[in-house]
Amino acid sequence: MTNHNWLVTEDGQYTTFGNTDVQAPERVYRLYRFLTDLEDILADESDNSRRIQKITPLVRQLLTSSYWLQMEYDPPSAKTGWSVKFLYREYEFPLTVQMVAWAPGQVSTIHNHGTWGIVAMIGGEEKNRLWRRSPTAEQPHRLEAVDEKVLGPGDIIGFTPGAIHQVQPLGDEPTVSFNLYGVTDYKTRYAYDVEAQTAKLF
Fold first, then answer.
1. Is 11 left (phi over 0), alpha (psi -120 to 50) or beta?
2. Overall pTM > 0.70
3. What is the domain range of residue 97?
4. Please, are residues 61 and 79 in contact by the beta-carbon 8 Å criterion?
5. What is the chain's pLDDT, residue by residue, as a tens digit (202 residues)?
């Protein structure tokens, strides 16, 4: 299987970018170094698409070099069907760094994140259904499906703040991913109900 880097924008379109090869570092690329490099990129680059393209190679380097991170997840909850384990939390640290696991048979809401995000697949296969807003006077929250992308281990997908998707694990194994998100604008983060053509704030 060939690894890919994907970028999804608010129109539901996706493009591939960058090189997925990872050069072995001279020393272990640790989480604290990654976080420092991440903050430097965010301070120097304001465009979300370019941020994603600059950060993605560092995510690959982190997960390859600090391999233990790939094992730092909790099994999906029997009650919710998913689990979240934070890898780093600090007072007034605005970014989200976490491992997420989904049980087979689960389907997420249709949603955006209200910020840029990067998801690196570690285990299992996951279908991402991509949507875009297509409002009318009668249905201001109307959505239309655009495409779908199946991700496997080694694939990384980045989302701009307005990108809309729905996640569904495939097969009989849980999916496991490394998820990284910027500062959420909760005024723009929604979950969507396609049948009712309504949206609600998170």
1. alpha
2. yes
3. 5-201
4. no
5. 579 999 999 999 999 999 999 887 788 999 999 999 999 999 999 999 999 999 999 999 999 999 899 899 999 999 999 999 999 999 989 999 999 999 999 999 999 999 999 999 999 999 999 999 999 999 999 999 999 999 999 999 999 999 999 999 999 999 999 999 999 999 999 999 988 888 988 7
CA-closest candidate to residue 162, choices 130, 197, 120? 130
3-state secondary structure string across the chain? CCCCEEEECCCCCEEECCCCCCCCCCCCCCHHHHHHHHHHHHHHCCCHHHHHHHHHHHHHHHHHHCHHHHHCCCCCCCCCCEEEEEEECCCCCCCEEEEEEECCCCCCCEECCCCCEEEEEEECEEEEEEEEECCCCCCCCCEEEEEEEEECCCCEEEECCCCEEEEEEECCCCEEEEEEECCCCCCCCEEEECCCCEEEEC
In the numeric block, which tokens belong to residue 190? Answer: 């929604």
Structural domain total, the chain: 1
Q: Give whole-number Cα distances, 61 to 7, 33, 198, in Å.
A: 18, 11, 40
Which CATH number characterizes residue 23's domain?
2.60.120.10
